[in-house]
Amino acid sequence: MTQLQQPIKFAYWVPNVSGGLVVSNIEQRTDWSYDYNVRLAQAAEKNGFEYALTQIRFTAGYGAENQHESVSFSHALLAKTEKLKVIAAILPGPWKPALAAKQLATIDYLTEGRIAINVVSGWFRGEFDAIGEEWPEHDQRYVRSEEFIRTLKGIWTTDNYSFDGKYYQFQNYTLKPKPLQKPHIEVFQGGSSRAARDMASRVSDWYFTNGNTVEEIQKQVEDIRTKAKANNHHVKIGVNAFIIARDTEEEAKAVLREIIDKANTEAVNAFGDATREAGAASPEQQGNWAKSSFEDLVQYNDGFKTNLIGTPQQIAERIVALKNVGVDLILSGFLHFIEEVEYFGEKVLPLVRQLELQQEKEIEIQAKSA
Ligand SMILES: Cc1cc2nc3c(=O)[nH]c(=O)nc-3n(C[C@H](O)[C@H](O)[C@H](O)COP(=O)(O)O)c2cc1C
């Protein structure tokens, strides 16, 4: 089956940090509590979402005052769901690969193979300083993350594992039991800089990127897939989008306007400063947020730029356009999570599947007549 024939997948951001997914004082019915998140996870798996992504913050950033830890929160959501895979954010530095490999292997057993991880390389220096963690410069953080991913995969798949890296060393180490998932637990990564793309093209199973236009996403996909091919590696692509689906386009656009008009200006500006500091050492200036405006930063992973804002039909067409440039998964955020995940499942997803089917038939007809 070609990639175009695979149904596009959907993930959602777990609101395990307070304040929802937008840095705005607009009313939000999203809540960071466990109870809310369990109901959301159950609604999401009923409504066609295959994955949920938790976030990791050690200190408050962009006004998100409270943050539950990602791995334990992911495990707790897995315990209350049946099919959903939960991707736990992991930050090399605070996490060491030996502990992560062991902890995740156990969770894999406890949840019948439904845990995944998102290795993130960090953007908030203040957070690292506050917890006494070293803050290597931008590209060095990716050297460390790549070693982190290589060692996890090594430990998960090999007995008597040895590794002699700059950041991590292993000698003749055998983890037992190994994870249930084969060949290993899925590894996602987040970031868009050259270092991030190069890492994805060598070691990650999935590349997560900030929201962007179809044209810009296409450039990233082509860059990564070309490099990955040269490395004999396959990597799948996930793109962030803040989805505002409403019965009319006017309603959807009005919601976006209100989110931006009510932005928490101080928190958005502080976030903008932190991201500039984080990306300063990314030599080519192509990292996440390199070109983000104030309005873009109100959704902290540029989710408005993907423009999944409009009617179900408009959104479905734009999702299929992303799929057609090589995107495998949409990572979605919503204003009022539970009710909007349900609206998405009822109104948008069937249209996406219909468009995919139509496209598949057209490809078959073309193939027959060729
Ligand atoms: C989908 C996605 C999820 C992320 N989740 C987190 C997170 O939970 N915690 C965190 O500190 N950073 C997170 N990041 C930010 C990354 O750590 C990284 O700093 C950022 O993407 C900038 O990387 P770049 O300079 O390579 O573009 C995430 C990034 C993306 C794209």
Automatic annotation (TrEMBL):
Protein name in UniProt: Dimethyl sulfone monooxygenase SfnG
Organism: Acinetobacter oleivorans
Matching PANTHER family: ALKANESULFONATE MONOOXYGENASE, ALKANESULFONATE MONOOXYGENASE-RELATED
InterPro entries in UniProt: DMSO2_SphG (IPR024014), Luciferase-like_dom (IPR011251), Luciferase-like_sf (IPR036661), SsuD_RutA_monooxygenase (IPR050172)
Molecular function (Gene Ontology), one example: monooxygenase activity
UniProt key word Oxidoreductase: yes
Pfam families in alphabetical order: Bac_luciferase
Domain Luciferase-like, first and last residues per copy: 9-328
NCBIfam families registered for this protein in UniProt: LLM_DMSO2_sfnG
